[in-house]
Amino acid sequence: MIDNRIVIIDGNSLINRAYYALPPLITKEGQYTNALYGFITMLLKIYDDYDPEYIGVAFDLKAPTFRHKEFTDYKLGRKKMLPELAQQLEPLKKVLDAMNIYRVEIEGFEADDLIGTLSNYCQKREMECLIVTGDRDALQLASKTTKILITKKGISNLAIYDDAQVMEEYQVTPLQFIDVKGLMGDKSDNIPGVPGIGEKTAIKLINQFGSVEELIKNTHEITSSKVREKIEAHIDDIVLSKRLATIITEVPVEIDIDHLKRKDVNYQEIIELFKEYEFNSLINRFSNKEVQEVQEVSADSYVIIQNIDQLEAAKKKLMDSEVIAINTIDYGSDRITDGLLAITLATSDEEVYVIDFRDTNDGKIIETLKEILEDEKTSIICHDAKEKIIHFSTYDINIQGITFDTMIGEYLIDPAKSSYSLLDLSLLYFNERITDIDELKGKGKQAIKIIDIDKDQLYKSLYQQVRAVQKLTPLIQEKIKDLNLERLFYEVELPLASVLASMELVGIKVDQNILLSLEKEFGEKINQLTSEIYTLAETEFNINSPKQLGEVLFDKLGLPPIKKTKTGYSTNAEVLDKLMDRHEIIGKIVEYRQLTKLKSTYVDGLLKIINSTTGRIHSSFNQTVTTTGRISSTEPNLQNIPVRLEMGRQLRKVFIAEEGYTLVDADYSQIELRVLADISEDKNLLDAFEKNQDIHTRTASEIFNVQMDEVTSSMRSSAKAVNFGIVYGISDFGLGENLNISRAKAKEYIESYLDKYQGVKRYMEEIVASAKANGYVLTLLNRRRYLPEIHSSNYNVRSFGERMAMNTPIQGTAADIIKIAMVKVHKNLKKNGLSSRLILQVHDELIVEALQEETEKAAEILKNSMEEAMELKAKLKVDLSTGSSWYEAK
């Protein structure tokens, strides 16, 4: 802590900045928190960077100030604070109170005046004063001891001004900054100033005369007759404006600086508030010493097993235990081929055993572990079951009896969390901080490998984690029961963890030669496009720089600018699409962007992640990421291969079947529209699927009032956009953009659709009403998504909430169905004794790598398992194909 340093924060200014700097954050209860979160993170950054001895936050109060009394139009016309921001002020004050940060607020005076008075108090006592604000008005307070920290680029950066810096940047002293304001006025505060006098002219005049008082006395010396006339016509306004712009530094109040002395945080209270506002990452910030540590782990809290005799002695206790909790840690390098570093096993009566595989090379230990963990009577609980299955597979241990996973359980309870780590859950449920292994490793240059972590610290962490699993399990189980999520958890998500583990372990084979060929082909094409773009632009420039590209397109080539950003012209995909017919260069740039992304992300990216041992790519399938329940994948993200482009489709040639195998590809036919038909019970939709009609042709027939055989390809395309748009709650504006038609015409299409599909219309109205009443929507399996946005007074945010209310039951149910199908496919392939294996899931598509002599049987199992995944009124249908590569199979 730096003695004699005080930080004074302009509360209203900073929370306002934070609100507009961050995207909306909303709790499940509908409380907006983005400004609150931004303010707190900035506050913590100030603690880190400046470590002041004293700190206070100044706020405006609602009562009128002397300025309002003197000038009734003061701040007149200023927009009222948005409700989404206003509702965050009281929570902020609660947080500040819990952090024991003094709030400076007095009726009749603005926060600026209180800040000015405090800074004056500090200056007289030669205390260093730092004022944090987004308002340049505070620059008038700058001095050798008082620095103004102005927020820049949202709230992440601060520009620091003392008196010298103000002089350097504005060519006036801090006090003269008031005179400048007196001349130019301030629209935001409705301070009049002199109409037509801007900042440059005001600075020039104050440099010449020194102050507005001297300027008023010597107007005859103003060289510009126009400026002189303006000044002379508004002398009263100038005097008033300076007075209004002057921050009072002698508010008649007694200052007790000890009130601002930094005090200990009320950690219990702050953590409860952070839980309420769902700031899990901020809870971690206060978790080093501030929250209750878990019970101290001593050497006799666990048993270290180093030989087979010790494990045999523990075996009976483990196998007799009602439940075994397990935790594992690997070497942190290759999760597929590297072994385990250490594990913990805990019995129901809290006996904890640690096995460090660095010290135990006895194969008999593995055999005994296999016997314990594969026993059909063994019930196992853990956190992140998929990871545990992968870890033990290295030792040919196939865990069978996982009965609970705390990570998946918490995900179903609250699918919007950013983290489901044991550290976060322990803090959330128990206010207890367990030792974090990543923390033990350290950061940056100081970081160490896991194998170099002190053993006692490592064992302590593993012990705490396995005990956390034991404590969390009954609490999360109860919540799952209360929310009617038991079927979804026990029949879908938990068994799915084993399926995903199997898929990751098997991986998918890639043809490295095709990749290298594409690398060369794409590289040559990119070079060719670069040359053609330079020729068309008649100059060389950085095509990847939006700024340089904007200058070429709009300044040099004279194309009409569609959209401007703070940094210049926008050159995003939407802008380029609107300019496509204006110049030949646009098409080249679009193709260049597509190719460079494909090359860097997929071609170069895939070459880097081919497993040197297996020769396959082992993508990670993420079960607890999306709020809709869909599975995502990383390294590589197979969901995002741009297959609408021929270049993107070419990438599918890279993914091939192992020698002696064939890829069997199955894709649900219009699963989301079938789910919509089931949920809405719309007669027309159900009838179309019952008759096995082309749904888009049927919809076109309904919308355009023609017979199905009279539907043109253009009509069908429009109907297809409407069908899928309806599923995603599309607006007339959005549909118009997609189809390149007028908003009025798009509205006509949507109204015609809803007129013909009354069941869908009724569903949309009822699900939005339900979401507003309950704050959430459900899938057919009760997967829950909270929608606090739906109560927003902001039209765009509320509309987003309404679209999600319509879409989530459909998309979420489709996600549930594909997961059920995956579990069935995996189970049925095994049940039939096949060597074929499920290896890939992308959106509504599953791929099985089938032994060639098993192809027919595997295809039958794949198709039947998918079509029987869920009984819908519009029966599920699957399209099936085979090939030696993903490209052929698709």
From TrEMBL:
<dbReference type="InterPro" id="IPR020046">
    <property type="entry name" value="5-3_exonucl_a-hlix_arch_N"/>
</dbReference>
<dbReference type="InterPro" id="IPR019760">
    <property type="entry name" value="DNA-dir_DNA_pol_A_CS"/>
</dbReference>
<dbReference type="Pfam" id="PF01367">
    <property type="entry name" value="5_3_exonuc"/>
</dbReference>
<feature type="coiled-coil region">
    <location>
        <begin position="848"/>
        <end position="879"/>
    </location>
</feature>
<keyword id="KW-0227">DNA damage</keyword>
<dbReference type="InterPro" id="IPR018320">
    <property type="entry name" value="DNA_polymerase_1"/>
</dbReference>
<dbReference type="Pfam" id="PF22619">
    <property type="entry name" value="DNA_polI_exo1"/>
</dbReference>
<keyword id="KW-0175">Coiled coil</keyword>
<dbReference type="InterPro" id="IPR001098">
    <property type="entry name" value="DNA-dir_DNA_pol_A_palm_dom"/>
</dbReference>
<dbReference type="GO" id="GO:0006302">
    <property type="term" value="P:double-strand break repair"/>
</dbReference>
<dbReference type="InterPro" id="IPR008918">
    <property type="entry name" value="HhH2"/>
</dbReference>
<dbReference type="GO" id="GO:0008408">
    <property type="term" value="F:3'-5' exonuclease activity"/>
</dbReference>
<dbReference type="GO" id="GO:0003887">
    <property type="term" value="F:DNA-directed DNA polymerase activity"/>
</dbReference>
<dbReference type="InterPro" id="IPR054690">
    <property type="entry name" value="DNA_polI_exonuclease"/>
</dbReference>
<keyword id="KW-0540">Nuclease</keyword>
<dbReference type="InterPro" id="IPR043502">
    <property type="entry name" value="DNA/RNA_pol_sf"/>
</dbReference>
<dbReference type="InterPro" id="IPR002298">
    <property type="entry name" value="DNA_polymerase_A"/>
</dbReference>
<keyword id="KW-0239">DNA-directed DNA polymerase</keyword>
<keyword id="KW-0235">DNA replication</keyword>
<dbReference type="GO" id="GO:0008409">
    <property type="term" value="F:5'-3' exonuclease activity"/>
</dbReference>
<dbReference type="InterPro" id="IPR002421">
    <property type="entry name" value="5-3_exonuclease"/>
</dbReference>
<dbReference type="InterPro" id="IPR012337">
    <property type="entry name" value="RNaseH-like_sf"/>
</dbReference>
<dbReference type="Pfam" id="PF02739">
    <property type="entry name" value="5_3_exonuc_N"/>
</dbReference>
<keyword id="KW-0234">DNA repair</keyword>
<dbReference type="InterPro" id="IPR036397">
    <property type="entry name" value="RNaseH_sf"/>
</dbReference>
<protein>
    <recommendedName>
        <fullName>DNA polymerase I</fullName>
        <ecNumber>2.7.7.7</ecNumber>
    </recommendedName>
</protein>
<dbReference type="GO" id="GO:0003677">
    <property type="term" value="F:DNA binding"/>
</dbReference>
<keyword id="KW-0269">Exonuclease</keyword>
<keyword id="KW-0808">Transferase</keyword>
<feature type="domain" description="5'-3' exonuclease">
    <location>
        <begin position="4"/>
        <end position="263"/>
    </location>
</feature>
<dbReference type="InterPro" id="IPR002562">
    <property type="entry name" value="3'-5'_exonuclease_dom"/>
</dbReference>
<feature type="domain" description="3'-5' exonuclease">
    <location>
        <begin position="302"/>
        <end position="481"/>
    </location>
</feature>
<comment type="similarity">
    <text>Belongs to the DNA polymerase type-A family.</text>
</comment>
<comment type="subunit">
    <text>Single-chain monomer with multiple functions.</text>
</comment>
<keyword id="KW-0548">Nucleotidyltransferase</keyword>
<dbReference type="InterPro" id="IPR036279">
    <property type="entry name" value="5-3_exonuclease_C_sf"/>
</dbReference>
<keyword id="KW-0378">Hydrolase</keyword>
<dbReference type="InterPro" id="IPR020045">
    <property type="entry name" value="DNA_polI_H3TH"/>
</dbReference>
<dbReference type="GO" id="GO:0006261">
    <property type="term" value="P:DNA-templated DNA replication"/>
</dbReference>
<feature type="domain" description="DNA-directed DNA polymerase family A palm">
    <location>
        <begin position="648"/>
        <end position="854"/>
    </location>
</feature>
<dbReference type="Pfam" id="PF00476">
    <property type="entry name" value="DNA_pol_A"/>
</dbReference>
<dbReference type="InterPro" id="IPR029060">
    <property type="entry name" value="PIN-like_dom_sf"/>
</dbReference>
